[in-house]
Design goal:
Layout lengths: L1 E5 L5 E6 L12 E4 L5 E8 L5 E9 L4 E9 L4 E5 L9 E8 L5 E10 L5 E8 L9 E8 L14 E8 L5 E9 L4 E9 L4 E5 L1 H4 L4 E8 L6 E10 L5 E7 L2 E4 H5 L2
């Protein structure tokens, strides 16, 4: 599903792309941010044929539980939950929803950014897909800092941020190994996370301009579980955020990563 926000009679402000999912009782944690004046809003949907009890929680970057609630969703119903007032300004955290008992739940967070006139200028959506990394399973995402510019114009190059959430009760370390387009390793970034903590790290300094490649996240800690998302942030020429894209990730056998 692709939704477009029309800009008057010419063009669009942003587009949201979402995958069709069957739903699950726990799709894992979703990275949440109020950086760049983002306004995160969670959405829950019951895709089952009966009522569904749901528990949701919001945690700050250090993993501290800052909000929890129980919701009851009728069959085929949905609910929105604004998250901004649970996190400090210019900070990160996580959101997680799971059903109590059996059921089929869709869970997502959409981040919105507003222009000075309060109009929504950009947005991106992240869906809970149950894709978690560990010491055995790596998470891979494409990297790109090359920007396609119109002829005769200069377009600022996008930043690539690695957004990681610790899905477990113990502190852990995650390494993002960076590969260029031909497959050669060009560096890596190590991130330490508190229990249930979150972090976002810019990769631009490591990969530089006009880069196309792959980022692969894995932990060496036993029992580790984490979600990893790649955010591609396109700046405006005059400064500020133009738009943000959440790049879909995929799971990869961790043994292949360790063999490189």
């Amino acid at each position: 599903l692709v939704s477009f926000s029309r800009r008057g009679t010419a063009g669009y402000n942003y587009a949201l792309s979402k995958l069709a999912l069957e739903g699950s009782c726990d799709g894992g944690p979703i990275f949440v941010s109020t950086r760049d004046k983002a306004e995160p809003i969670a959405r829950l949907a019951n895709v089952g044929e009966s009522k569904l009890a749901v528990e949701l929680e919001v945690r700050d970057a250090d993993g501290k539980l800052v909000h929890s609630a129980a919701e009851n969703l009728s069959e085929h119903s949905q609910k929105t939950v604004p998250l901004s007032h649970y996190l400090d300004a210019d900070s990160v955290g996580s959101y997680r929803a799971h059903c109590i008992g059996e059921g089929a739940l869709l869970s997502e967070v959409t981040h919105y950014g507003r222009a000075k006139k309060k109009q929504i200028e950009w947005a991106y959506a992240t869906q809970a897909r149950g894709i978690l990394g560990s010491s055995q399973i790596a998470i891979a995402s494409s990297l790109k800092t090359a920007a396609q510019a119109r002829s005769g114009s200069e377009t600022p190059q996008p930043d690539n941020r690695s957004a990681i959430v610790n899905a477990g009760p113990n502190p852990l370390a995650v390494k993002v190994t960076l590969f260029e387009g031909e497959g050669s390793e060009v560096g890596g970034v190590n991130t330490k996370l508190a229990s249930n903590g979150s972090a976002a790290t810019s990769l631009y300094q490591q990969i530089g301009p006009d880069f196309k490649g792959l980022g692969v996240s894995i932990s060496s800690d036993d029992g580790a579980q984490f979600s990893s998302e790649l955010l591609r942030i396109f700046p405006k020429r005059g400064g500020g955020v133009g738009y943000i894209v959440s790049v879909p990730s995929t799971q990869k056998d961790g043994r292949e990563v360790r063999a490189l």
